[in-house]
Amino acid sequence: MRLNPQPSFWRGAIELSQTLHPLALLAIAAAAVLSLTQEACRDTPHDAAATPCTNLTAPRTIRSSGRTAFEVRVKMDVDVDGAPNAYGPKGKKTLDILEHAYSPKVQGKPRELVGYMTEDDHGTPTIQGKDDPYPGYYVSQTDFADIHNPRMEDPRRYVDAATINYVVLGRAAISGGVQLGDFVTVYSCRTGKSAYAIVGDSGNESGAEGSLALVRSLGYAHIVNGIDESVDNPEIVIRYFPHSNPKKEFFKTQAALDQAAKKLGLNTE
């Protein structure tokens, strides 16, 4: 914080101090303190926690980075699907509980198991082998996958929620022409931080869900798993770029994803 040693308002108060009534002096002093505070605030970064979200109240189509984009504002649940340590048998330290491996409750629709892979009996979890990242854990998958990896039970085939920024494909995004694998930019109105991401999963019609890596990159450092934390206020703005990844390029690192997004000319402003 930077304070000017003698702002003009304060100098005026000093000059008048010899002639004014004590009550008037008190009023001037209070106003001077307010003036100092306002000057300090102009030189201090704005409190991001107090920053209101954009007035975006409904999904909209805009032009951004020379492209047609589709924008929504949402809350954000934390998705850990695709992380090799997302789910596992009792006793394993996992990023989430098995209850969260199912799709959200929707009236009139049965909940579906979407968080991890099962064997042909549709009940027995597929277990990672000794050469996989987390032997003994369940194979957690995402709907967007590496089409060049034919081994369906390979955890590396899926988007790792712990290291890659992704959002979940919702109903509104689908209506805007968005597909799995498309690029997005995401902004938090609370923290003022933004990030590149892709559409990496489905299973939540609201679209109000993002990977653990994404939430943390937006500045929510207190969120370390998918068990009991989320962004509960509609303060996340997602900007989708439909048909921006026609070759369905799969990214194994966030750095590679960021580089590809920048190459397309996308910006996070």
Query: Looking at the structure, what is the overall shape?
Result: globular
The low-confidence parts are 1-20, 22-52
Report the radius of gyration as a whole number of Å.
25 Å
Number of strands: 7
Number of domains: 2
**Would you tell me the structural class of the helices and strands?**
alpha/beta
**Largest sheet properties:** 7 strands, mixed
Mean pLDDT level: 83
Percent range for helical residues?
10-25%
Count of individual helical segments: 5
Give the amount of beta strand, in percent.
15-25%
Element string (H = helix, E = strand): HHEEEHEEEHEH
Between the first and last Cα atoms, what is the distance in angstroms?
A: 26 Å
Write up this protein.
With 269 residues, this protein is of the alpha/beta class. It has helices spanning 8-16, 22-42, 171-175, 212-217, 254-263; strands spanning 60-64, 67-79, 166-168, 183-188, 194-201, 209-211, 231-241. It is globular, with a radius of gyration of 25 Å. It contains five helices and seven strands. The chain has two domains: 8-42; 60-263, no CATH class. Strands 1, 2, 3, 4, 5, 6 and 7 form a seven-stranded mixed beta sheet that branches. Helix 1 (8-16) packs antiparallel against helix 2 (22-42).
